Amino acid sequence: xxxxxxxxxxxxxxxxxxxxxxxxxxxxxxxxxxxxxxxxxxxxxxxxxxxxxxxxxxxxxxxxxxxxxxxxxxxxxxxxxxxxxxxxxxxxxxxxxxxxxxxxxxxxxxxxxxxxxxxxxxxxxxxxxxxxxxxxxxxxxxxxxxxxxxxxxxxxxxxxxxxxxxxxxxxxxxxxxxxxxxxxxxxxxxxxxxxxxxxxxxxxxxxxxxxxxxxxxxxxxxxxxxxxxxxxxxxxxxxxxxxxxxxxxxxxxxxxxxxxxxxxxxxxxxxxxxxxxxxxxxxxxxxxxxxxxxxxxxxxxxxxxxxxxxxxxxxxxxxxxxxxxxxxxxxxxxxxxxxxxxxxxxxxxxxxxxxxxxxxxxxxxxxxxxxxxxxxxxxxxxxxxxxxxxxxxxxxxxxxxxxxxxxxxxxxxxxxxxxxxxxxxxxx
Length: 428
Fold this sequence. Notes:
Among the domains are: 2-189, no CATH class; 310-404. It has 10 helices and 2 strands; from the N terminus they run H-E-E-H-H-H-H-H-H-H-H-H. The chain has helices spanning 2-8, 60-81, 93-96, 107-121, 136-219, 227-242, 260-265, 280-309, 314-330, 335-406; strands at residues 12-17, 31-36. A two-stranded antiparallel sheet has the order 1-2. It is flat, with a radius of gyration of 51 Å.
């Protein structure tokens, strides 16, 4: 059951039953009923859309045969652990080629009829019900079992004849020993020949490595290094150094001497360039630089792929993750799925940060709008207060004018009537 869950991701229900001895069943017939779904269960607890092909009509026989073999292995392991020499096999008599005949599956009804017949046979002859007969299938199986028993008895007789063959086997053993000695001598000769061949191949490999190492210094360009050429030289150097033949710098070329006439005429001599030679440390440093450059390129490409992945919506990412999980159950894990899992994890973290940033911005915007509304309200209240104060001053002026009129104070008609002060929004 654990194997079914692990291999197919399905739900498995197992019910272990003891033998139904009271019904006439074999007291060894401990058995289990195992039921399971034909569809895998996803991480969300839902059924997958497709059924397993292993459970179909076309592939079901092969799958059941695999289960039978696995169960036989489990039983034999337990028998071995308890020290039993008994073993079981999932193969039929035909597949075992043991010469025994296979019986026919009787089924529930035939088994019940057999048991009724056997119970009737235990009664006295006069009390037996003659209508209860042994089923033909059960009778045929009994005949097959008898023939198999007779065959087993005959095999015991044949085993006795095997003792007579032992003497012949001793003679054959001596002949086999002589043949083994001859084979050992032949194997020793082959070993010597193989050793010589390895020595020749090693000698040729060293010669090829020396030639490539010699040519390397003439074609190597440190400004535009060739990766394959650099790694080949490092491998050749290791092989040559192992046998004490690593490349050495060539002897310096002597510069030509001026002739008497060239000295008199003051001619300049061209210097002869020294043959190029690069130390192994320089080559290894170049290989390291190439690897670091390739690693940077790979990181840059991965970053570009990640930036492209971050443009997906969460629903698209969920769909991609479901596809990856489906592949892991059907075709196995792919090399790119590890990076995909990393991208999915980063995308969800990034998306949460974006959502949190949007919420923070909205909250800040709401606070700003509330502050602005409060300011506008306070300013409107201040303006109304100024208007009330202006109206009060105007009313005081009118009252003063009316009092003057009542006392018959002469009024200067040329004096202008005071006007209300203009509204000043900046007045406290």
